[in-house]
Amino acid sequence: MKTILRHGTAILIFSATATVAAAQTSPADVVKTYADIALAKFEDSLATAKALDTAVGALVATPSESTLKAARDAWKAARVPYQQTEAYRFGNPIVDDWEGRVNAWPLDEGLIDYVDASYGTESDQNSLYTANVIANPSLMIDGEKVDASRITPDFLQNTLQEAGGIEANVATGYHAIEFMLWGQDLHGTDAGAGERPYTDFDTANCTNGNCDRRADYLKAASALLVADLEEMVAKWKEDGEAHMALMERGPEGGLATILTGMGSLSYGELAGERMKLGLILHDPEEEHDCFSDNTHNSHYYDSEGIRNVYLGSYTRIDGTTVSGPSLSAYVAEKDKALDEEMRGKLGATKSAMEAMVSRAETKEAYDQMIAEDNREGNETVQAAIDGLIAQTRTIERIVAALNLGDVALEGSDSLDNPNAVFK
């Protein structure tokens, strides 16, 4: 800044150099915004999980069509902020190590409760395929008799989750709760979701037996989800483990973390494992929210999570916004055309996802879209996959432009080696 006296008046003139310096976005500020948004997203996930827990309590206390619907609606609402947190996976090992407790899928639901005869009675890969803990107060796990008389959060997390070292034995988290609220979707690629009756929780007018234990399971799983999210909220506070681990990587390491999460979710996880795999196999068992037919929304909010991380702005469930210096602004200062390309790709993916959501809400569910004989539905899903792949390619160019070194993104056989899917 220069000061010039002209006719006795002091005139302040700001040099071009000072103006540019003031406008610059620092990597440290970008990483701080990223951390602030993480905390907000997990706080919203916790708030909606608590609302779900309240609705579950009401269902168990007074089972009815209305309390079951309210619990289902609360579950769907809880998915909105949580799915947007998934952009924090892959780059943050603390989140990835924890994620399996809350969002693991697919699951062998016969571990938990009764299933239809079409499910079968045994699996070469899973001795607990039809263990049905709700109907059985004791189980055999790895050749040892296990007391299952009390269904508690501790039992679910420390005994039943991944019992026998088998990932398909999912006993906790959103999808276990989803199964409890909807039951199996037996419609295949026809219209309809799970149809569990509210009387499955009504001890006075019980259907399918063991209504007291089924209620205990649902309450325990819901309480555990709240506890798990409380843990992750604490980890993203300024003195929390995840926040501190991120800051310890330094500004450049933080940028690499952000782009690893964005690219891995965009490509290997969402475009590949969650979308292309099901489309290749035309298999509704490969859809993410398979009991509730809510998959279209889960995919949409995953993609929104990628977008709001890049733009450095997140709209909370109360309508307020958490925002700050963004990766977009930082990239634009290095290469404006590259930032415009990234924004354009994110916008194209958003449009494709919105078309998929619109189709799901007006014509057919996601599991119908991926059916073998549904050309238009397949094309709708493929368009969203194509958008995710295209934006990942730009993410890779951003990594190179910022000289961040070796940033490894998750792959998927369904995208990289489709023939392996059928082996």
Describe the structure in your own words.
This protein has helices at residues 16-23, 27-61, 65-84, 93-103, 153-160, 174-182, 211-236, 241-248, 250-281, 295-311, 327-334, 336-362, 366-369, 375-401, 413-416, and strands spanning 2-6, 9-13, 138-141, 144-147, 313-315, 321-323. It starts with a strand and ends in a 7-residue tail after the last helix. With 423 residues, it is mainly alpha-helical. It has a two-stranded antiparallel ribbon with strand order 1-2. Helix content is 58%, strand content 6%. It is built from 15 helices and 6 strands.
Concise summary:
This protein is mainly alpha-helical and 423 residues long. The protein contains 15 helices and six strands.
List the helices and strands and how they pair.
Blueprint lengths: L1 E5 L2 E5 L2 H8 L3 H35 L3 H20 L8 H11 L34 E4 L2 E4 L5 H8 L13 H9 L28 H26 L4 H8 L1 H32 L13 H17 L1 E3 L5 E3 L3 H8 L1 H27 L3 H4 L5 H27 L11 H4 L7
Antiparallel strand pairs: 1-2, 3-4, 5-6
Helix pairs in contact: 2-3, 2-7, 2-9, 3-6, 3-10, 4-7, 5-7, 6-7, 7-8, 9-10, 9-14, 10-12, 11-12, 12-14
